[in-house]
Specification:
- This protein has helices at 3-25, 217-232, and strands spanning 40-46, 51-59, 68-70, 75-79, 84-93, 100-108, 116-122, 128-134, 141-147, 150-155, 164-173, 176-185, 194-199, 207-215, 251-256, 258-263.
- By secondary structure, it is mainly beta.
- Strands 1, 2, 3, 4, 5, 6, 7, 8 and 15 form a 9-stranded mixed beta sheet that branches. A 4-stranded antiparallel beta sheet has the order 12-11-14-16. It has a 3-stranded antiparallel beta sheet with strand order 9-10-13, with no helix packed on it.
Length: 265
């Protein structure tokens, strides 16, 4: 699930929690919604070999009907030391990730570039939104195996500078899709090779495809904060969780990752 869906769930969860609390009190009370301004929302995941793509949306205030709207006719540029890429309005839904993008470029992200990408957006209303991300090194799965109820994925060496990873297992049980994912902060890990472990009864899976993502610290913090914010909305008495974002004058994530995959059965 991407930020667009999660953010909508957070808002709906917030209101649902208030309504549930009001019902438990058995009293009629007036609810004042917080004065939440409209925000620009961005998701952009750069990875070698894919097109430059970006989701640009805008939230509405809580006092209005709940919905997210696409932001069109913005000036969107991604720059590096080697190039300046202009992204144009194009609506595309990735069939594998189900992410929806409304800005893109026919240019492919190079495998050889090692540096920083910078994002600059000028919205139709004239607001400026910026962000930047560095690249991370390529990742390579060294070994995979299933032992009892564990799936072990080995990596020859953890990147000391960017020790953040996401491990994903995709498969099916009785023709129903199943996905398990876990984020890893490997700071301080000296083990060689290092083994990621996912716990589940994988012997029942009819197919197993493993993906190992090497991500930035900002990416790791963003995903963790979104998960915690989503969980906090289940309990109406839990303190709301702030989303960790690297977007200036907006919310979301602009990041770079590398990925390797392997199939077990």
């Amino acid at each position: 699930m991407n930020l667009i869906n999660k953010h909508l769930n957070l808002i709906l969860g917030f209101i649902t929690s208030i309504n549930m609390t009001a019902c438990m009190l058995n009293n009629n009370i007036d609810i004042d919604f917080p004065n939440e301004n409209e925000k620009v929302m961005i998701e952009a995941y750069l990875t070698p070999g894919r097109n430059f793509e970006l989701s640009l949306m805008e939230t509405n205030s809580l006092s209005k009907d709940l919905y997210l709207r696409l932001c069109w006719n913005a000036q969107v540029e991604i720059t590096s030391n080697n190039d300046n890429i202009k992204l144009l309005n194009i609506l595309n839904t990735d069939k594998k990730t189900h992410y929806t993008y409304n800005y893109g470029s026919p240019k492919y992200i190079p495998h050889s570039y090692n540096g920083t990408y910078k994002l600059k957006i000028i919205t139709q209303l004239g607001d400026t939104v910026t962000a930047e991300t560095k690249t991370v090194s390529s990742v390579k799965i060294a070994k995979t195996e299933i032992t009892e109820n564990k799936l072990n994925i080995s990596l020859n060496k953890v990147d000391d500078e960017d020790p953040y990873y996401i491990c994903v297992a995709e498969g099916s049980i009785n023709d129903k899709a199943v996905t398990i994912a876990k984020n890893y902060d490997c700071s301080g890990v000296k083990e060689k090779p290092f083994t990621f472990c996912l716990i589940h009864n994988f012997f029942k899976w009819e197919k197993i495809k493993i993906k190992l993502f090497h991500i930035t610290k900002e990416h790791y913090n963003f995903f963790n904060s979104v998960d915690k914010a989503h969980d906090a909305n289940i309990d109406p008495f839990t303190t709301p969780q702030k989303i960790d974002s690297n977007i200036k004058n907006g919310i979301g994530i602009f990041t770079f990752y590398t990925v390797d995959s392997s199939t077990l059965k």
